[in-house]
Amino acid sequence: MHILDGYLKPEVWATFDLISVPAAGYLSTKMKRADHDSRIPLLGVMGAFVFAAQMINFPIGFGTTGHLLGSTLLAVTLGPAAAALVLAVILGIQALVFQDGGLLAWGANTFNMAFCGVAAGYLPYYLVGHGRLRSISVFGGGVLSVMTGASLALLMLKISGSPVTPAVFGGSAVVFLITGLLEGAITVTVFEAIERLNPSLVETNKHNLRVTKRLFLGLSIALALVGISFASPLPDMLQKAIETMGIPGRQTHLVQSPLAGYELPDITNLYLRKAVAGLIGIGLVYAACLLLSRSVRPRRQGAL
Amino acid sequence: MDRWARGAGPLHQLNPKVKVIILLAYLIGVSTTPSSQLGTLAAFAGIVFIALVVSGLPLFGLMLRAAVTLPFSVSFALLSYVENGDGRIAASVLLRGQLCVLGTLLLVATTPLPSLLRALESFGIPSAMLEIAQFIHRYLFVIADQGQRMRWAAASRDAGKIITKQSLLQRLGGALGVLFACSYNRAEGIHRATLARGPKGGFPVLHAPPIRKLDAFTATCSVLTILGVRLAAFN
After folding, report:
1. Distance linking the first and last C-alpha atoms of chain A
2. Of residues B140 and A213, more confidently modeled
3. Which of B83, B176, B200 best tests the A interface by mutation, with the highest count of A CBs <10 A?
């Protein structure tokens, strides 16, 4: 889901431009360094492939059509860093030439789809992609990448004061889920076809994590998902349901954390407060995940 | 779009760097305008309309192109109307989105992509990203054509009827997988050809057009006008 220019508040698009521009710069220098030069034409042609694949629509019933989005496919074939860079460029071209997304909103769209979308799409493959669960992990990655990108876009629109009511959010969530399931299904069939054609094209997953580490990572991802759901407007409905059922004030805070109740003090708008607090929460969880994965990685490489 | 960009109107002659600066100023101006200031947005609409007329591009074609985003903007404006009950806010939501689209469209329709990418390079966009963008632009239609040929081939094999027991999804997955592998091989071929041409390969460096006095003058005037429109309270 591409956000167009003019729909995000200046604070929001500026923040995400400030995040995405250096990140994309880092990825490109990493790609340019050493003998990665041969990958530049590859990334370009694969970007063109994603564009072409998006043009091939197929009927999914009810008079609508679907197409491959490709972030998970790129992540499991080219690797996550290359996939993120290609998608960042694709988003730029879409914003400029195809009126899909915007120039100022590029940072936000890149953050949603190129960085978080690819990370979410690659994660299941990274965790369990080397064994029997390979296909399922690719499928799950497809679902997750679409859901992550789309819910982040909705969240950003909501922080910007757009009328994303719980009803709108619920309706879109259903649409995203269907899109995500389709994406997962196509990705997995394309992935298997590529593997049959030429197994060397698929990035072999050598991440043979031990069960405890896998559980550990899985748990932190589950935590991140809980963080997202807290930031989403859906719990507002949940809260309302609880209030109307007459069980208010039951929650007790064991630890008075700075983000208690996911509300920050000095921000007046209730939705805004929750969304901002939720985003900070996600950021913290993400930082924790990053640290965890950093601490896990060196030992794994040592074992290989 | 490429055909439009090869024109020779006054906006085509403007230095691409200058055009990017003006567009950024314009986009920032439009997107920081609060929804309550419908007058400011109307003034921005006036600016972009003047630029459209000056550019000498087909007005109707451009408008049609910009209308691609209408489903999104209209549904958003409707939602905002339902939520706030204020027609002015809904109108400014719609206007702001469409004005940004028109401005971007004007840049791309008056600047060929290679010179646009070169202008972006001088703003510090990493060369790796720009090279990837060049490759995408070059091979997009090659690969799309290949996909089209594969569809024709499939249609001639089964005469439009499904004669295999595979599901639609499997056939689609297989076709996309073949396309993927072909694209991959093509990329390897390109890389070998680049290596054969010389150690550096890459893109030939075109001479970036110098910034003339007229360019500097236009840039200053446009940015000042945009700033003036944004700061003046039009209510």
Report:
1. 39
2. B140
3. B176
Burial category of A280 from C-beta neighbours within 10 Å (exposed 0-12, middle 13-18, buried 19 and up): middle
pLDDT on residue A90: 92
Count CB atoms within 10 A of the CB of residue B31.
24
Q: Which of residues 47-76 of B touch A (CB under 8 A)?
A: 65-66, 68-69, 72-73, 76
Residues of chain A with pLDDT under 50: 233-267, 298-304
Chain A interface, mutation test: which of B132, B162, B200, most A Cβ atoms within 10 Å? Answer: B132
Identify whether the C-beta of residue A24 lies closer than 8 Å to the C-beta of residue A88: yes
Three-state helix/strand/coil letters over B75-137: HHHHHHHHHHCCHHHHHHHHHHHHHHHHHHHHHHHHCCHHHHHHHHHHCCCCHHHHHHHHHHH
pLDDT digits (tens, 9 = 90+) for B22-63: 999 999 989 888 888 888 888 999 999 999 888 888 888 888
Nearest residue to A215 via CA among A121, A144, A296, A136:
A296
Of all helices (H) and strands (E), which one includes residue A12? helix A10-32
Residue B148 pLDDT greater than 50, yes or no: yes
User: Which of B99, B133, B179 is the closest to A89 by Cβ?
Assistant: B133
A20: Cα separation from own chain's centroid:
14
Distance CA A217, CA A208 (A): 13
The answer to whether residues B30 and A6 touch, using CB atoms and an 8 Å cutoff, is yes
Question: Nearest C-alpha of chain A: how many angstroms from B102?
Answer: 9
Residue B135 burial (CB count, 10 A): 24
The minimal CB distance from B139 to the residues A45, A197, A198 is found for: A45
Q: How far is B133 from chain A (nearest CA, A)?
A: 6
Record the tokens describing residue B191, joined without a space: 């890389």
Rounded-to-10 torsion of CA B105, B108, B110, B114: 180
